[in-house]
Amino acid sequence: MAQTPRSLILDLYGDYLRYVGPEVRLTPLTTLLAEFGVTSATARVTMSRLRREGWFTTRRIGRETAYTLSQEMLEVLEDGRQRIFAPPTVGWDGGWTMVIYQLTESERHDRERLRKALSWHGFGPLTTSTWLAPGDRREEATTLTQDFARDRIHILQCSSGGIEADRDLARRCWDLDELAASYSEFITENRSLTARAASLEGADALRARTELIATFRHFPFLDPRLPEELRPDDWPGVEAHEIFRTAHADMAEAAEEHVAAVVGAPVEAPRPESDGALRPSGARSS
Question: What is the C-alpha separation between 171 and 149, in angstroms, rounded?
Fold first, then answer.
C-alpha cells in the first residue's frame, strides 16, 4: 500500500516518535522516512507544511530543527490509537441513542462537521438528519453536539420492536456488506503476516508494521463496532482485529528498537492489553 509522506509521518508519530520525548530532530526523522522511499527534500517540505498547519511547533538547536507535536495533534493521535485497538463490542442493552438535527443548507459547514463527528464516534445515518448508535450514548452525543444550538439538536434514547427490527436498522444505517468485504480483503492480505511477523528485524519490521497499521487504521472511520447481536453472521471484523493486534504486537520490539537506534532515545510506547486498554511498555498486568 503506497503511503503519502503525510500519512507516514502520522503513523511514525502515532506508533513511535511521540514516545521518545517531547521533540524529535529533523535529521533522524528524514532518515526514517528515507526507509520508505521519501527523499530528504520531500521530508523537509512536508514537515514545514505540517508546521504551518498547526501539527508541530519548532525550535532551533544549532543548525538543526526540532519538531514538537501540538497538544491538539497529540490528542488526535491518542484518540485514534484508542479506537484502533479497542476490542469488539461485547454486550448490548437492546436500546439505541438517536440524534436528530435541524441544520439548513446555509449551515452546510456545521452540518458536515457534525456528521463527521457522529460517524467517527460510531453513529450511522438512518436518514439525512437522523443518526443512530446502539446502546445508551446520550452523554457522549451531548458532548459531540455541545458546540451547536441546543434547540436545533435532539438526543433521544429509544428501542425497536425486536431483534429483527434492530438488525434491519443496522443494515439501513451502515453498509455492512461493503465493510465485511473490506475486512475479508484485509484478512486475505495479512493472514500470512502473523506467521512471520516475529521473525522480522530492523527496518523490515518497521516497514511491515507501518504498512499494517496504515491499512487497518481506516476501519474505525467505517466500523460502528456493533454488538454481536446486530452483526451479520460470520462477521469477519473479529478475525481482522485479532490478526492486526497479533502481528502489530509481534513486530513491536524489533520496530521500536530500530526507531530508537535512529533517533537515539528509547521508544516507550504502551502495550495494548487483551481487553483493549493501553499500558506503558514494561508494565505488568494486575
Answer: 30
Contacts of 66 (CB under 8 A, 6+ apart): 23, 24, 25, 26, 58, 59, 60
Query: What pTM was computed for the model?
Result: 0.86
Residue 276: per-residue pLDDT: 53
CB 29 within 8 A of CB 265: no
For residues 227 and 239, what is the distance between their CA atoms, to the nearest angstrom?
A: 15
How many C-beta atoms surround the C-beta of residue 38 within 10 A?
19
Using one digit for the tens of pLDDT, what is the confidence trace for 240-286? 999 999 999 999 999 999 999 999 999 999 877 655 544 443 333 33
Alpha-carbon gap, residue 21 to 28, rounded angstroms: 14
Q: Cβ atoms within 10 A of the Cβ of 228, count?
A: 12
- Core vs surface per residue 66-102: b (16+ CB within 10 A) or e: bbbbeeebeeebeebbebbbbbbbeeeeeebbbbebe
CA dist., res. 92 & res. 178, Å (int): 24
Domain with CATH 3.30.70.240 in the chain: 96-158
CB neighbours (10 Å) of residue 25?
15
What is the tens place of the pLDDT at every residue in 177-202?
A: 999 999 999 999 999 999 999 999 99
What does the pLDDT look like over 73-131, one tens digit per residue?
A: 999 999 889 889 988 888 899 999 999 998 777 778 888 999 998 998 899 999 999 99
Give 228's DSSP letter: G
- The position carrying cell 469477519 is 236
Distances (CA, A) of 89 to 173, 243, 271: 17, 17, 20
Structural fold of domain 96-158: Alpha-Beta Plaits (3.30.70)
- Residue (of 192, 186, 168) closest to 236 by Cα position: 186
Q: Secondary structure of 238-259 in the HEC alphabet? A: HHHHHHHHHHHHHCHHHHHHHH
